[in-house]
Write a structure and sequence with these properties.
The protein is of the alpha/beta class. It folds into 2 domains: 59 residues, DNA polymerase, domain 1 (Orthogonal Bundle); 263 residues, Aldolase class I (TIM Barrel). It has 10 helices and 14 strands. It has a 10-stranded mixed sheet with strand order 3-4-5-6-9-10-11-12-13-14, with helices on one face. Helix 1 crosses helix 2. The longest helix is centred in the middle third of the chain and has 15 residues. It is elongated.
Length: 342
């Protein structure tokens, strides 16, 4: 089976090109065609010699995704369902706001961590996405929508740090000036708390933003809401976040989904404020989005406002994420790679 050339970083392409006896500048030409111009075949790479194209075609394939469904929410959010070679599907969400086009990328089919308010983990982990399958989501959305994405958040299906090597390669391609060319500070990695991944991510030499799905401020409750906490409890997670902030200079965002009568009390807010102040972190509150199969309820508006005010009164920077695309199952926690339309 041919190797997918889109799985390769520029450095890896240089090694492949050298091994084929070609000059090193050919690697940059290929990289530009793949990631800047989104070439779908070697035949489109018009500045490559035909004999070299033939070599490439014998050794490599140019991978893509098939658009199985495109839905547009009443609020303008778009969701894309992509079909892959093995018959699996993955979803991507484009959120348009004033001057910003934020793309929520998936890194896995399913998820092994099975947080009880997230639809992505209902089937468990099916498999990791390859580098090409991650980057292609971005390239194809830009092509289909004829727009330039301004921000990327790895907050779609799967746990990004559970697919660490492919995640980092994808980030490097998206960030590279000869690739997509998106600044590192415009890229956010969201994790449920995979501590070893956080500690490795801080050392990649790029100032990507880190977002941590906290959702509880005690180990007993977090064990229930974020099962990875049983392996990496709060003290280890907080320590890793502190090191990420100290060594990268990037303020960590703590994501906190408010679930009615579960984690939205005054006491919960007080304990969350202590953690946020200790880490000098921002807090992003999320009203729990409806998922019929999981049966979790969102906090009412009064409870949400009180929770926010308690955090602010303790000097914590806090925002409330506006739910986008709930009518097409595109909001936080709703992605499950399933068709919405008949």
């Amino acid at each position: 089976m041919k190797k997918d050339i889109r799985d390769l970083t520029l450095e890896e392409l240089k090694e492949e090109v050298a091994g084929m006896g070609e000059p090193s500048h050919r690697a940059r030409q290929i990289f530009l065609w793949l990631n800047r111009k989104n070439a779908a075949s070697f035949g489109e790479m018009t500045d490559l010699p035909k004999r070299f194209m033939a070599k490439l075609e014998r050794r490599f394939a140019v991978g893509t995704l098939g658009l199985a469904e495109r839905l547009v929410s009443k609020d303008g959010t778009e969701k894309f369902l992509w079909g892959m070679e093995d018959g699996e599907y993955v979803e991507t969400v484009l959120i348009r706001e004033k001057g910003r086009r934020t793309l929520c990328l998936s890194t896995q089919v399913g998820c092994r961590f099975k947080c009880p308010f997230c639809a992505s983990g209902m089937r468990g982990l099916i498999r990791n996405l390859r580098v090409s399958e991650i980057v292609n989501q971005l390239l194809l959305v830009q092509k289909v929508c004829d727009c330039r994405v301004t921000n990327v958040v790895f907050m779609g299906m799967g746990e990004p740090l559970d697919n660490y090597d492919n995640l980092v390669k994808a980030i490097r391609i998206i960030n590279h000036p000869d690739g997509v060319g998106l600044g590192a500070r415009k890229i956010t990695v969201s994790t449920c708390g995979v501590v070893p991944g956080i500690l490795k991510l801080k050392d990649i030499g790029l100032q990507v933003e880190l977002s941590v799905s906290l959702h509880a401020s005690s180990d007993s409750l977090r064990d229930e809401l974020v099962p990875v906490n049983r392996k990496y409890p709060l003290r280890k997670l907080i320590s890793a976040c502190r090191r990420y902030y100290e060594e990268t200079g990037r303020v960590v965002t703590l994501e906190y989904t408010l679930i009615k009568d579960k984690n939205d009390s005054a006491g919960d807010a007080e304990k969350l404020a202590v953690i946020a102040k200790d880490l000098k972190a921002k807090v992003n509150l999320i009203a729990c989005n409806p998922i019929a199969e999981l049966g979790r309820g969102r906090s009412d508006r009064k409870s949400i406002n009180l929770f926010m005010e308690r955090l602010r009164s303790r000097g914590v920077t806090v925002t409330l994420r506006k739910s986008r695309g709930t009518d097409i199952l595109a909001a936080c926690g709703q992605l499950a790679a399933r068709r919405v339309s008949p």
